[in-house]
Design brief:
single chain; alpha/beta; nine-stranded mixed beta sheet; 8 helices; about 25% strand; globular
């Protein structure tokens, strides 16, 4: 009887120890971030570019297979640009998508914008549709996924987390830039929490909206992992938000020639408490000194096979990042 009880305890312990897994998929300077909860439910933010012989949808489908999932439970369209939702239709033909999450209709017009939104809407109409606003929660079983920005608006109240609600002394020294009236500024931004672990993804939210999100106080607090906003372009990522978030690890979803600017990397590398920067591509825009060491870069050559970075988070808040190109892994302790 004691042996049977011990086995049951061990089985329960193994079940409880399931990880949160995140695949940062290379779509050549777009975005495709696959979150797989310990429950087995999944959320994909964006689907990369269309065309290229189904390159990006194929890479996402391969990541889904590696993750052991048969469908996407929630597809989050951060905003309606070709490098983010252009591949949604092709992906839906390969992997079933149960629900589509977005900020509502596009604010951009013209033949290209209308065509892009039409292709996305055709895929969306085959599933469930959730239009979200700041403060909403995406009901991914086993995780807390909070919408912190959407449709050009921001959350109104501080969240629970380290440093949330604190005054932000960097606001005064961060000037505003020209107003962005397009889709980037309306990006859906999410905070994914698993126990004490926190990861933020703000899509392509631009400079003024990011500054506004954390000024005069920071309602989000500190995060463990920050996926660079807007691929590491300097039209996003002001010091006021990057340093306020105090990320321990930064993952940059750049392309070889898109994003990863020297200015953005300088802001990131001077952030307090930063331990490492991981990149989907070596950035030809930044130079050797600002790029991460090759060990931390999934794709070191401009012509690449689409290697990904994988994040695995344990219930105690510790996490591991792994580079699929060289199988290098690094473990990080829970936030102290």
């Amino acid at each position: 009887m004691r042996a049977l009880f011990a086995l049951l305890v061990l089985a329960a312990s193994m079940s409880a120890a399931k990880t949160l897994d995140v695949y940062f998929i290379d779509v050549e300077g777009g975005q495709a971030t696959l979150v797989v909860a310990p429950s087995g439910e999944s959320m994909l933010t964006d689907a990369g570019w269309p065309g290229f012989n189904g390159r990006d949808s194929g890479r996402i489908a391969a990541a889904a297979k590696a993750a052991g999932i048969q469908q996407i439970d929630y597809f989050v369209a951060s905003h309606y640009h070709l490098d983010h939702v252009g591949g949604a239709g092709e992906l839906a033909a390969k992997v079933p998508i149960r629900a589509f999450v977005d900020h509502g209709p596009t604010v951009e017009s013209g033949a290209d914008a209308d065509k892009l939104f039409g292709v996305y809407r055709a895929a969306r109409d085959k599933g469930r549709h959730l239009r979200v606003k700041p403060g909403d929660t995406i009901p991914l079983k086993g995780l807390n996924v909070q919408v912190v920005a959407a449709g050009g608006e921001k959350i109104a109240r501080s969240l629970k987390g380290p440093g949330a609600g604190a005054a932000n002394g960097l606001c005064a020294s961060t000037p505003m830039k020209e107003e962005d009236k397009g889709e980037n500024a309306r990006s859906v931004g999410t905070l994914v929490s698993f126990g004490d672990f926190r990861m933020i993804n703000l899509g392509d939210l631009t400079w003024n909206k990011e500054r506004d999100l954390v000024c005069p106080s920071n309602p989000i607090g500190a995060v463990d992992v920050y996926l660079t906003t807007h691929h590491g372009l300097d039209s996003s990522g002001p010091r006021a938000i990057v340093h306020a978030l105090r990320p321990r690890v930064v993952v940059m979803n750049n392309g070889a020639r898109k994003g990863g600017t020297a200015e953005a990397l300088q802001v990131i590398r001077s952030s307090p408490g930063l331990e490492d920067v991981w990149q989907l591509h070596y950035s030809l825009n930044a130079g050797k000194d600002l790029n991460a060491a090759d060990t931390f870069i999934a794709n070191t050559d401009e012509s690449c096979s689409g290697q990904w970075l994988k994040l695995s988070v344990s219930p105690d808040g510790s996490f591991t990042l792994t580079n699929s190109r060289n199988r290098y892994s690094k473990q990080y302790k829970p936030r102290s």
